[in-house]
């Protein structure tokens, strides 16, 4: 899924049906990443309380 190989020919041929994925995907990913960053960075709660299950944290502490 190389955007340059998809968007370039789509513009030349005038077929814009699948381009929304290449535009909406990065925007949605950036918004979701910023939301997750703010959730983790600006909270005083411990990680186990945020995730409700801390099983992955317990497994990393054992090893």
UniProtKB/TrEMBL annotation:
Subcellular location per the Swiss-Prot or TrEMBL entry: Membrane
Record keyword Cytoplasm present: no
PANTHER family tied to this protein: AQUAPORIN NIP1-3, AQUAPORIN NIP2-1
UniProt entry tagged with the keyword Protease: no
GO cellular component terms listed in the entry, alphabetical order: membrane
Record-given protein name: Uncharacterized protein
SUPFAM superfamilies xrefs: Aquaporin-like
Transmembrane segments: 19-40
